Amino acid sequence: MDDRAAIAPTLPRSNPTSSYWQDPPHRISTHRTTGELPESVSTIIIGSGITGASIAYNVLDKPGTSSVLMLEARTTCSGATGRNGGHTKAASYRAFLDNLRDLGEEEAAKITRFENRNIKAVHAFAKQHKIECDSWEGDTVDIIYDMAQWNRAKKAVSEMKRILGEEDPAAQYKFHDALETAEKFLTEGALGSVSYKAGSINAYKFVIGILEIALIKGLNLQTETPALKINRSGDDRSRWTVETPRGSIRADRVIMATNGYTAYLYPPVKGIIVPLRGTVAAQRPGSKMPKEGLNTTYSFIYGNGYEYMIFRPAESMFDGDLVIGGCSTKAPEEGLYEWGTTDDTAMDPGIGQYVRDSAASYFGSHWGEDDPDGRIRKQWTGIMGYSSEGFPLVGNAPGEDNLWIAASFQGSGMVLCFLTAKALVTMMDGEENEEFNDWFPRVFRMSEGRLKHVFQGRLHEKAPMDLELKASFEPQLETKGCTIQS
Length: 486
Prior knowledge:
It contains 12 helices and 17 strands. By secondary structure, the protein is an alpha/beta fold. Strand 1 (40-46), helix 2 and strand 2 (68-71) form a beta-alpha-beta unit. The strands form 2 sheets. Strands 3, 4, 5, 6, 11, 12, 13, 14 and 15 form a 9-stranded mixed β-sheet that branches. Strands 1, 2, 7, 8, 9, 10, 16 and 17 form an 8-stranded mixed β-sheet that branches. The longest helix is centred in the first third of the chain and has 24 residues, at 105-128. The model is unreliable at 471-479 and 481-486 (pLDDT under 50).
């Protein structure tokens, strides 16, 4: 992993795989508010995904805000947000025991509540501003095939209820045994399952909606204008200069909302924020799947990884489609070579095949025949960002006044980014207070110490050792899905 983490990221590449969500592209996909770049602005935001868009909205929503410029290397929202799986799902119990051990009860509870609050805020904002983005709220289920993962889920939920309280909305989970799981969720061979509240959304349309509001408020959006370098302004060390192929712009402050690409512009996070390529497919359901469509979203959890899946809600384009992603740990060396790459123009053929086959495998006899038009409607890749500790990095770059960062969302951008953007703007404006500290996790904040941690890969995937040992004395069921041959 050390060698993969040490690879320097590139700029976002031209001609990435075509994302289901961006087809067709929105009318502002190649928007440039002004024909020429301004020489000087108050704020530059680099990146037009959910983080950058939400930061722009929060900055411009304040009275008396001066000029805000957004730079996007490719088309609008063409990075991870516009290439995700459409899930607004926290699965907070999966990391809770690790957070409890490493951070203590207060911080573990704060992270859990933050994730739950963020999901609700995303859907509430879409509703309030009438953004047409297929926003759906309902139930999700985690189908569990591994005894250690089952034991971990049981223990984690018990601890969540003890610490957060039995009635806390963020601690509401329901367990289902193997028989009920098979009957209710149409899956075969699972040990059991756990259901809770979640949702789905067309994140591309959601972000486009935020940006359209920001444009009305005065945002200057410049697409196909990559930031090449960030330097201190030579004539005024209190300001920054951002270089682009179209010229340089000076700014009072610069915000990097660049996720897995951040180390390209800010080398101190090389090996601290590491890119990971993910693979997603939109599929037509099989002939035996419910004609009325599924009524819950899914994750399929095995010993060292998982897949996630949503259904497209009624009245959305291609309603009933299944969008499924994950699977990288099924590749040789548990997907090692997907780490460190920023190439979303390509797809690992083995992982691609696994994604194509996985939904039909999980639903087994309930799948039936493939649609006459073919199982796959579209398949694509995207670049996520992971940190050495498994948490976002949010705040002022150490020792660099007015150079800000909000990045590394661990493949859970829809669960973290929206309120993180609000938190960053609060920090930039110097408005941190006791109330702020009550809701924003301390462990997310940028610090010098966080630049010294060794990258370990994706965290919170495997069950703790004590649960693995316990599982070794209990019956195991065969893991569903397919295995990639090397």
